[in-house]
C-alpha cells in the first residue's frame, strides 16, 4: 500500500507551488488570445507553391498590414490569421495572393468582430462557473445519504477545488508555451478542452469518493485518514489505467492529427494528466484534512 494520504502534505505543497507558478506565468507572460476572443479574421487556403508563406508575408508587408500570423497546417494547407478586415480588403488580398501564387485557392474565410468576441468571452466564463456549480450540486446530491459526520457538500467543494487546480496549472503551461513557442492560444477549442478536462477530472474523483463512502459505511468508526488511504489505493490502478488509455489515444491524435486541432489535443493531454494526479493526490487529501480538522 502506498502512503498517499499519509504523505499528503508533500503533494499539497507541490500542488500549491505549481498553482503559484501558473498564476505567476499567466500574470507576467500573459495569454495569447485567439481570434475568437480578441476579434480578427481567419483565412484557410491551399497551395503547393514552396514559396507560398514568404509570398503571403511579403504581400502583407507591402500593404502595411501588421499583427498577422501564417501557419502551414499540412503540405498544401495554409492558415492565415490577421486583424478584422472588411469584404473589400478581403477581395483585394485574395486578388494579390492569386497574382503572386498561381495555384492559390481559398477554402474558408471567417471574421469575428469585437462585439461577438466580448459576448463569447462572457459565455465562456459563465460556462466554466455553471459547470463548477453543477458539479458541486450533483456530488452533494449523489452523496446525500452519507453517514454523519461526513458532509456531502465537502465532497462537492473538494472536487471543485481539485478541478480549479487542474485548470489553473493547464492554463499556466499553455501561457508558457504560447509565450515562447507562439503556437498555443486561447480560443473556443481551448475552452472546450477545459470543460472536457473538468468532466474527466471529476469522473476520476467520484470513483475515489464512492469507494471512500463504501469503506466508511463498512467501518464508520475508523479514522477518515485511514479510510481515505484504503480508498485511494483500491482505486489507484483503475485511475492510472483509464487515464493512460486516453492519453495514448490523444498522443496518437497529436502526432498524426492536423495542425488545426493539435493545440486542442495538447491542452487535453496536459489537463487529463494533471486531472489524474489531482484525483489521486489532491482531491481526497483535501477532503480528508477538512473532515479531520472539523471533527477535532
Explain the overall architecture:
The protein is α+β, with helices and mostly antiparallel strands and 296 residues long. It has 2 domains: 8-35 and 115-295, Multidrug efflux transporter AcrB transmembrane domain (Multidrug efflux transporter AcrB transmembrane fold, Up-down Bundle); 40-111, Alpha-Beta Plaits (2-Layer Sandwich), CATH 3.30.70. It has helices at residues 8-29, 35-38, 52-62, 87-100, 114-142, 152-181, 188-218, 224-256, 259-295; strands spanning 40-46, 69-72, 77-82, 105-112. The protein has a 4-stranded antiparallel β-sheet. Helix 3 crosses helix 4. It is elongated, with a radius of gyration of 24 Å.
Topology record:
Elements lengths: L7 H22 L5 H4 L1 E7 L5 H11 L6 E4 L4 E6 L4 H14 L4 E8 L1 H29 L9 H30 L6 H31 L5 H33 L2 H37 L1
Antiparallel strand pairs: 1-3, 1-4, 2-3
Helix pairs in contact: 1-6, 1-9, 3-4, 5-6, 5-7, 6-7, 6-9, 7-8, 7-9, 8-9
Amino acid at each position: 500500500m502506498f502512503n498517499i494520504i499519509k504523505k499528503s502534505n508533500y503533494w499539497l505543497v507541490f500542488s500549491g507551488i505549481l498553482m503559484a507558478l501558473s498564476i505567476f506565468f499567466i500574470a507576467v507572460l500573459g495569454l495569447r488570445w485567439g481570434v475568437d476572443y480578441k476579434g480578427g479574421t481567419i483565412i484557410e487556403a491551399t497551395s503547393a507553391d514552396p514559396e507560398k508563406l514568404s509570398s503571403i508575408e511579403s504581400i502583407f508587408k507591402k500593404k502595411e498590414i501588421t499583427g498577422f500570423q501564417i501557419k502551414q497546417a499540412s503540405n498544401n494547407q495554409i492558415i492565415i490569421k490577421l486583424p478584422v478586415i472588411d469584404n473589400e480588403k478581403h477581395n483585394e488580398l485574395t486578388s494579390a495572393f492569386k497574382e503572386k501564387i498561381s495555384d492559390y485557392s481559398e477554402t474558408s474565410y471567417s471574421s469575428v468582430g469585437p462585439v461577438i468576441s466580448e459576448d463569447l468571452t462572457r459565455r465562456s466564463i459563465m460556462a466554466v462557473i455553471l459547470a463548477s456549480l453543477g458539479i458541486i450540486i450533483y456530488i452533494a446530491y449523489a452523496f446525500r445519504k452519507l453517514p454523519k459526520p461526513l458532509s456531502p457538500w465537502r465532497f462537492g467543494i473538494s472536487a471543485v477545488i481539485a478541478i480549479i487546480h487542474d485548470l489553473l496549472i493547464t492554463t499556466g503551461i499553455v501561457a508558457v508555451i504560447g509565450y515562447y513557442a507562439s503556437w498555443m492560444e486561447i480560443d473556443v477549442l481551448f475552452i472546450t478542452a477545459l470543460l472536457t478536462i473538468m468532466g474527466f477530472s471529476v469522473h476520476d474523483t467520484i470513483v475515489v469518493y464512492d469507494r471512500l463512502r463504501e469503506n466508511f459505511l463498512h467501518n464508520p468508526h475508523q479514522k477518515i485518514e485511514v479510510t481515505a488511504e484504503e480508498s485511494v489505493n483500491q482505486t489507484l490502478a483503475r485511475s492510472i489505467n483509464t487515464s493512460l488509455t486516453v492519453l495514448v489515444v490523444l498522443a496518437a491524435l497529436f502526432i498524426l492529427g492536423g495542425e488545426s486541432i493539435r493545440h486542442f489535443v495538447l491542452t487535453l493531454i496536459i489537463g487529463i494528466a494533471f486531472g489524474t494526479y489531482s484525483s489521486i493526490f489532491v482531491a481526497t487529501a483535501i477532503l480528508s484534512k477538512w473532515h479531520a480538522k472539523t471533527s477535532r
